[in-house]
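Lab meeting, item 3. Inverse folding demo.
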């Protein structure tokens, strides 16, 4: 990523933090310049930190941020020091919002994420509940907009001030994928990888299987799938039976091949706990009547 000049960095930082390209609070000038120097002109760092300081006017809070983000990013802007900045923003999120943000690691790089799909998945996972007069979906929309305002996700397709879809910056996605793996929040399997030594219970599983490689069979025999509550598949359907996923609440399959009417009938009536079901394939022409027996189903997206 190309670094900005100090003058451009200042304009970007001030615009995000103060809503103006001018410094509104003279008492913050010195610490503000110190933060910008540590960001070393890296746009993502400038946006992330300035978003964290929106509406903050206490000098002590700005000093805390300056101390936390560590050394300058000039020598290695994509590595450890950038992680420090992202960690600062990540742990500044309220706990429930942090969980919803971490959930974005389930999507591949450069993937366009629809707000409606994401919010409905949050609800099905139990991350969001109704509060007083606000519906769970409305609360989910507020979470989505909060992540945009904090510059944690990038809004796309904005109409009347509301974004319908979003993207996650590559560096941010790498960070939350590592966090999700470390916390056993999401387990990701890519068909190009071959070594899996998973001795823990898998709760949420994401499979990227674009090559339709049969050798993945050896992977499934080593995994404990009975506790999986969420399964997301990008690419070809997996080679193991979905009947192994007895506790499944969320099933999201996006496939250009292999996902057809017959495939659906092989598992649908055996997953009675489903709350969210998304089946994306041009090969689907009819849905089995057994879907009507899914009494807990809240979202059906075909």
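The presenter then showed the designed sequence:
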């Amino acid at each position: 990523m190309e670094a900005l000049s100090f003058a451009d960095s200042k304009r970007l930082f001030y615009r995000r933090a103060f809503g103006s390209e001018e410094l509104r609070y003279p008492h913050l000038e010195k610490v503000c310049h110190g933060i910008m120097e540590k960001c070393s002109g890296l746009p993502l760092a400038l946006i992330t930190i300035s978003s964290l300081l929106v509406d903050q006017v206490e000098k002590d809070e700005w000093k805390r941020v300056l101390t936390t983000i560590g050394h300058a990013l000039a020598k290695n802007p994509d590595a450890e020091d950038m992680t420090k900045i992202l960690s600062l923003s990540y742990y500044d999120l309220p706990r429930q919002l942090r969980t919803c943000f971490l959930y974005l690691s389930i999507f591949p790089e450069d993937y366009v994420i629809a707000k409606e799909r994401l919010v409905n998945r949050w609800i099905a996972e139990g991350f969001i509940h109704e509060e007083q007069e606000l519906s769970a979906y409305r609360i989910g929309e507020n979470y989505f907009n909060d992540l945009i305002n904090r510059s944690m996700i990038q809004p796309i397709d904005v109409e009347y001030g509301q974004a319908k879809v979003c993207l996650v910056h590559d560096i941010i996605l790498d960070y939350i994928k590592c966090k999700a793996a470390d916390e056993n929040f999401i387990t990701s399997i890519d068909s190009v990888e071959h070594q899996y030594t998973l001795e823990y219970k898998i709760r949420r599983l994401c499979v990227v299987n674009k090559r339709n490689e049969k050798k993945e069979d050896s992977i499934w025999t080593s995994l404990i799938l009975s506790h999986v509550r969420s399964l997301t598949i990008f690419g070809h359907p997996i080679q193991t039976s979905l009947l192994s996923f007895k506790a499944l609440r969320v099933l999201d399959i996006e496939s250009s091949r292999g996902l057809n009417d017959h495939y659906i009938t092989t598992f649908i009536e055996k997953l009675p706990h489903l709350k969210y079901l998304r089946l994306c394939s041009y090969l689907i022409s009819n849905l089995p009547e057994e879907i009507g027996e899914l009494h807990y189903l809240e979202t059906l997206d075909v």
